[in-house]
Write a structure and sequence with these properties.
Blueprint: H1 3-28, E1 36-38, E2 44-46, H2 47-63, E3 68-71, E4 75-77, E5 82-90, H3 92-97, E6 103-110, E7 113-121, E8 126-131, E9 135-138, E10 146-147, E11 160-162, H4 175-184, E12 187-189, H5 193-202, E13 207-210, H6 215-218, H7 221-227, E14 231-233, E15 246-249, H8 254-261
Parallel strand pairs: 3-5, 11-12, 11-13
Antiparallel strand pairs: 1-2, 3-4, 5-6, 6-7, 7-8, 8-9, 9-10, 13-15, 14-15
Length: about 270
């Protein structure tokens, strides 16, 4: 089996797994008996987060038993040149408050490269996926899938910028840089979390950025962005989800956005 065929098969497998997860998370969304705990980093975690990750792990053990798995709630299990990276519920704070903007994120890392990603937001009735060389798509199902592409906006003052919040920018010493980028942009909205990046992939938004993220927050987003024609780096311009922060654009705006973010420091 060649690489493209194998990744197509991987997409089919993970789509079936996420179908199961979506059924579970939707039942727990707005449930009156939802259990919410606080993790050591003071972020919330629910029984839905833990349950969703366990479902994915159990089914990967059945269908991809040789692969390693890394998840937000249970960490790393196994070692392999292929590793599945899981964020069972991206947007847990939204989930807890009854806001429908949350999603399950699953990515596949192969030989150190993120080659596949799937994002499923069942409360929005939306799903996005991509694999290396196969393009990026959105749809409720495989049969209704639509290929997606980033925008062709090539000027910051014509660009739409999405972010999650102002938290974290000051810690990086880049709050002034972020505000400068926001002021230079045509439009700013805080769509937040995974949705900002999927909107960039669809061409509805041109720039998305966050100052503080983990690998599982970003991995699934990368192939969807890049297969749609966009660019995904950290805030120093390094490709991929490895830098604890993110800048995603349609590609045409990337260097200018980086330059603006880095043009001024909070310390001078």
């Amino acid at each position: 089996m060649n690489t493209r065929s194998r990744h197509s098969d991987d997409l089919q497998v993970i789509a079936g797994i996420i179908d199961r997860v979506d059924q579970f998370t939707l039942k727990r969304f707005r449930a009156t008996d939802l259990r919410v705990d606080t993790k050591p980093d003071f972020t919330p975690v629910t029984d839905a987060d833990r349950g969703a990750e366990q479902i994915i792990r159990d089914l990967l053990a059945q269908f991809r038993s040789r692969d390693a798995v890394f998840g937000e709630e249970q960490g790393q299990k196994g070692f392999s040149n292929r590793r599945w990276i899981i964020d069972p519920i991206d947007g847990t704070k939204n989930f807890v408050r009854g806001v429908p903007v949350w999603a399950t994120l699953v990515a596949l890392e192969e030989d150190g490269e993120i080659v596949l990603g799937m994002v499923s937001a069942p409360a929005l009735n939306r799903r996005w996926w991509a694999a290396k060389g196969l393009g990026a798509y959105t749809g409720k199902s495989w049969t209704s899938a639509k290929q997606i592409h980033v925008s062709q906006v090539n000027r910051i003052d014509d660009a739409s910028l999405s972010y999650s919040s102002l938290d974290g920018w000051q810690d990086r010493g880049q709050l002034r840089g972020f505000l400068r980028l926001a002021q230079a942009s045509w439009r700013t909205r805080a769509y937040g979390d995974f949705w900002s990046y999927m909107l960039v992939a669809e061409g509805a938004v041109d720039i998305a950025t966050e100052p503080s993220l983990e690998l599982y927050d970003m991995a699934a987003l990368v192939p969807i962005l890049t297969e749609a024609g966009g660019k995904f780096t950290d805030l120093d311009g390094n490709d991929g989800p490895w830098g604890k922060c993110a800048l995603a654009t349609n590609g045409l705006l990337h260097q200018e956005a980086l330059d603006i973010l880095q043009s001024v420091s909070d310390n001078n």
